[in-house]
Design goal:
single chain, about 220 residues, alpha/beta, seven-stranded mixed beta sheet, two-stranded antiparallel sheet, Pectin acetylesterase, hydrolase activity
């Protein structure tokens, strides 16, 4: 009888511990969901008039979460990745996706990792101005051409998109930056490699510019 009581008590304790663990995990998951930083998309004003457009002709876009306090004059610019399109056919297909048209992009994007505003997760950059530059030209923010096939047009205007985004960000405080980190992964890593010197030249004498090109080689 005593052994049965011990086993029953142990089972009850184990069940209670399991309930507490599950409840704690659920609460943590809920808290994590509540703390997600969702940032609205900004379409670059006037970009289309300069020919800075996505593959389908829609305007380029970015997400900006403004810095504060000691990080107010720090800027982290991150290129979105997503491979390349390699010819007219693949670029035409890409133009019908969020990697070729801002009209198909999510209007809100989650900022995490280097873009997070959580000092525990992102102690170096959490209070900087953090920007995610959306990728829609299919060539790592390079190129300045177009392909016409009858009534359809595919625009490869990555260089103009880069110029338009940076020009707009200059008006929003980038021109007064003290520290700037340009970064990106995959196709975004290549974009970082391509545009690092240009950004440094634009901010020469004003800001310290560093570039981090992550995994820029891809098949």
């Amino acid at each position: 009888m005593a052994r049965r009581r011990v086993r029953t008590w142990a089972a009850a304790v184990a069940t209670g511990v399991l309930v507490v663990v599950v409840a704690t995990a659920s609460a943590a998951a809920a808290a994590g969901a509540e703390e997600k930083l969702m940032v609205e998309m900004t379409l670059v004003p006037g970009a289309a008039s300069t020919g800075a457009v996505c593959l389908d002709g829609s305007p380029p876009a970015y997400h900006l979460h403004q810095g504060s306090g000691a990080g107010a004059r720090g800027w982290l610019l991150q290129f979105e990745g997503g491979g390349w399109c390699n010819d007219a056919r693949s670029c035409a297909q890409r133009a019908r996706t969020s990697l070729g048209s801002s009209s198909l992009m999510n209007k809100l994007d989650t900022f995490s990792g280097l873009l997070s505003n959580d000092p525990a997760m992102n102690p170096d950059f959490y209070n900087w101005n953090r920007v995610k530059m959306r990728y829609c030209d299919g060539g790592s923010f390079t190129g300045n051409s177009e392909f016409r096939n009858g009534s359809s047009v595919i625009y490869m205007r990555g260089q103009r998109i880069w110029d338009a985004i940076i020009t707009d960000l200059f008006q929003k405080g980038l021109a007064k930056a003290e520290k700037v980190l340009l970064s990106g992964c995959s196709a975004g890593g290549l974009a970082t490699f391509f545009h690092c010197d240009d950004l440094e030249e634009r901010l020469r004498g004003t800001a310290m510019v560093k570039c981090m090109s992550d995994a820029r080689v891809f098949p």
